[in-house]
Amino acid sequence: MSSLATNIPEIQLENVEMRYRTEAAEVLALHQVSLDIAKGEFVSLLGPSGCGKTTLLRLMADLIAPTGGNIVVAGKSAREARLAQKYGIVFQSPVLYDWRKVKHNITLPLELMGVKKSLREEKAMELLDLVGLQSFADKYPWQLSGGMQQRVAIARALSMEPEILLMDEPFSALDEFTRERLNEELLSVWSKVQNTIVFVTHSIPESIFLSDRVFVLSPHPGRLSAVVEIPLPRPRTAEMRNSPEFFELIARIRDSFEGV
Ligand SMILES: Nc1ncnc2c1ncn2[C@@H]1O[C@H](COP(=O)(O)OP(=O)(O)OP(=O)(O)O)[C@@H](O)[C@H]1O
């Protein structure tokens, strides 16, 4: 499998600026960020704490509005794209409802949209199959491990078949072994769903393993300091993490931090 990226632009940011104003102070969280993400591309937003990764993701999702610049998503404004349900979002914590069975957590967005019960259940089973949790459909979230809960959150985010999946450090609370396994599973899901993924992380190896391109952000003020192409072939395999190419990419990205 090669990358799913096309030449069609999916997300375009031009000179985006974000200033948070509080009573106490004003924070320039993002300064003059311009970037393009192609339809079907897998990109990561990488950087240390406070460099504006979450802010950038929230801007793309139209959860907040920029104080400057322009955002175009699938040829529309971010707001129009949100209303057209172009996005699925996965947060750092899975935010599942403990009193709803796993399958009913997944079908919640469909329920809110008024989709028929039989169709909802069918979709839930399809999504559980996709994330390898079919036999857990009737369990409750508290009966699942942290990694399984995050897979449920991914399945739920995919329930509306979003063109774009925005993921904010979804695996950072998990142990290293589970995280690496979920990275592999996420790529397998992506190869089937074939959407655009924007993945926030502060892990250099995670960003390399997953992405077609890594957007490196630097803090104070948050800005785009480098864009690194990841030429590793797909499908990516666990062994690639030990290859000389992988270590070279880690060094290149580290250098791009040191250069700022
Ligand atoms: N609602 C807010 N009001 C005021 N300042 C904010 C707000 N949200 C974020 N900030 C500030 O904007 C900057 C960027 O924050 P953001 O959360 O986007 O960074 P991040 O790279 O995602 O950090 P982390 O990795 O710690 O989550 C930080 O200085 C932060 O304190």
From TrEMBL:
Residues 11-244 form the ABC transporter domain. GO terms for molecular function: ATP binding. Keywords: ATP-binding, Nucleotide-binding, Transport. InterPro entries: AAA+_ATPase, ABC_transporter-like_ATP-bd, ABC_transporter-like_CS, ABC_transporter_ATP-bind, P-loop_NTPase. The keyword Nucleotide-binding applies. It holds the Pfam family ABC_tran. PANTHER family: ALIPHATIC SULFONATES IMPORT ATP-BINDING PROTEIN SSUB, TAURINE IMPORT ATP-BINDING PROTEIN-RELATED. This is Sulfonate ABC transporter ATP-binding protein.
